[in-house]
Amino acid sequence: MNQEKLELLADFYEFTMSNGYFEKDKNEIAYFDIFFRKVPDKGGYAIVCGLEQVIDYVKNLKFDQDDLEYLRCQNIFSEEYLDYLLNFKFTGDIWAIPEGTVVFPNEPLITVRAPIVEAQLLETALLTFINHESLIATKTSRIVRAADRKTCNGIWRKESTWSKLCSIWGKSCNSSVEQFGTSCTLTAKEFNVPASGTMAHSWMQSFDNEYEAFKTYAELYPNNCTFLIDTYNTLESGLPNAIKVFDEVLKPKGIRPIAVRLDSGDLAYLSKKVRKILDDSGYQDCKICVTNSLDEYLITSLINQNAAVDSFGVGENLITAKSDPVFGGVYKLVAMEKDGEIIPKIKISENVEKITNPSFKKVCRFYSKETNFALADVIMLKDEDVPQDNYCIFDQHNTWKKKTLTNYYVRELQEKIFENGKLIYTSPSLKEIADYSKKELSTIWDEVKRLNNPQRYYVDLSKDLYDLKTKMLTK
Fold first, then answer.
1. Where are the domains of the chain?
2. Which pLDDT score, from 0 to 100, does residue 184 have?
3. Which of 131, 25, 55 is nearest to 417 (CA)?
4. DSSP per position, 216-241
5. H helical segments located in 61-122
6. 428 with 52: CB under 8 angstroms?
7. Quick one: which of 197, 193, 195, 251 has its CA closest to 222?
8. Which stretch, 175-184, 192-201, 308-317, 341-350, has highest mean pLDDT?
9. Based on CB atoms within 10 Å of each CB, which residue in 2, 130, 305, 382 is the most buried?
10. In angstroms, rounded to a whole number, what is the distance separating the alpha carbons of residues 346 and 113?
11. What CATH code would you report for 140-319?
C-alpha cells in the first residue's frame, strides 16, 4: 500500500493538547480505547477493519519541515515542541482485534498504551481508518448475506483508495456467494480480484441505433458480452436487439453471451419477462444482472419476489453505507499509568450509553465446545483470570438477568501489534483475512446476523470491571 502524507491528519486540538502536555512535562503513560456504541443500520453485528492502514500510519508517522512550518505559522506552538515533532517516533504499545473479526458495541477494537504526548496525536487518523473501513466491511457483509446465492459485483465506483477491498469482505460473508468482483480497475489490480463492467448508456447513445451499438461491441469483445438493455425500451427494443446480435454475431462463432443488464424500471417484473424470452430463444445460460441503487433491503425484496436475477451490481449504497453512513467509533482515555500502577479513568455523561468502561481491558469470547458457536463476549480487566469450568454472565443494566456458561472454550480477541514502538505483528493476506472472516461469521447465530430485528448478542462486563465502574460512578 502506498503511504500517503497523513501526518497532519489530526484534529487541531490534538496538536494543542500534545503541545500542552509537552510544555508541562506531563508525559505519563496513557491508555486509550477505540470502540463504537451501536451497530450501523440497527444490525446485530459489525466487522472490524482498517488495521492494515493503522499499522502503515503508525509505522511511517513522521513530520517534515513543511509540516512544522505550517504549525509554526499558527503562532501557538513552542519551538521545543516543533523540534520534538521533527524527531517524532511512536514508542508505545498497541493491541487490536484482527481484521475480519465479528465485533459488538463497547468492545475495545484497539487499545493504545503510550506517553500521552504521542497517544493524543493518533486519535483522528486511527478513527478515520477504523470507522470508514469497518463501516464498509459491515455494509458489504449485510448486502452479500442478502444476496445469498447470487453473484455480487462492487464497488461500482470506488470513492476512496483507503478502503479495504470490500469485495473481499463480501466474499467472506457467505460461503454460497459465487463471486464478488469490482468495477474499479485500480481495485481489481491492487487486490487481484475480478474486474467487471462492459458498457454504459452513453455507449448505446453514441451510435445511430441500439442494434449497431450491440453489434459493434460483440465484434470487439465476443467473449465478454454483457449488454445493457434498458436504454430505450427493455422488452420492445433492448432485449430483441441483444438476441439478434447473439444470433448473428456470437452463435456463428460458437460463443455464448455472458449476461444482459437491467438498470431501471420494475426490476422484478422485467427480470421475469426477460428470463422467459431468453429461455424461449435458446439462451437459458445467459445471466441477468440488475443494478440501480441496490442495497440489502432492495436485494431481499427482489429475492422475495422470485425475481429472475443472477447477479447484483451494488454501488453508492455500499461504498458510502448510505442508509447509515457513520460507524461512530470513538477514542477515549481509559487509564493513566504512574510508577507502574494503572489508574483507571472514566467519562461520565447524562447519556448512559456515553459512560465509558474504565481501565486497561481485554475482550474474551466464549464458544460452545459442542457447536463452536459464540455464546457471549465478556469485557474484563486485563489481568483477570478466566474460569475454565463455569462462568456467570449478567446484564450490567439489569443485574438480575444472569446466565451461567458451561462446557466452553475462550479466546481473547485482541492481539498485540506494536511493542515499544516496534511492529511485532505479521499482517495476513487478503485471502487469509477473507477466510478468517468467513470462519468468524460461521460461529455467529443466524438470529444475530438477520437484517431486521436481530437477536442481541451478549456483551457483558466481568464482575471485577462492573464493580470498578460502579465504584467510580458512585464516587
1. 12-136+324-474, 140-319
2. 67
3. 55
4. HHHHH-TTS-EEE--SS-IIIIIHHH
5. 65-72, 79-86, 116-121
6. no
7. 251
8. 341-350
9. 130
10. 16
11. 3.20.20.70
β-strand 29-35 against 110-115: which pairing, if any? antiparallel
Q: Where would I find the beta strands (DSSP E) of 257-321? A: 259-262, 287-290, 311-313
287, 309 contact by CB (below 8 A): no
pLDDT score of 157 more than 80: no
Gap between the Cα atoms of 377 and 410, Å rounded: 9
Residue 133 has pLDDT above 70, yes or no: yes
* Domain spanning 12-136+324-474, CATH architecture: Alpha-Beta Barrel (3.20)
Q: Who has greater pLDDT, 65 or 144? A: 65
HEC sequence for 107-145: CCCEEEEEEHHHHHHCHHHHHHHHHHHHHHHHHHHHHHH
Residue type (1 letter), 438: K
What are the helix (H) ranges across 148-290?
166-173, 185-191, 201-205, 210-220, 239-245, 267-280
* Cβ neighbourhood burial of 80 (10 Å; 0-12, 13-18, 19+): exposed
Which of 241-250, 262-271, 286-295 is least confident?
286-295
**DSSP letter for each residue of 164-177:** --HHHHHHHH-TT-
Q: Which three cell numbers stand for residue 352?
A: 448512559
Asked if 250 contacts 227 with a C-beta cutoff of 8 angstroms, the reply is: no
In whole angstroms, give the CA distance from residue 179 to residue 396.
42
Measure the CA–CA gap between 101 and 119, rounded to whole angstroms.
24
Q: What letter represents residue 417's amino acid?
A: I
In the predicted model, what is the mean pLDDT of residues 153-161? 43
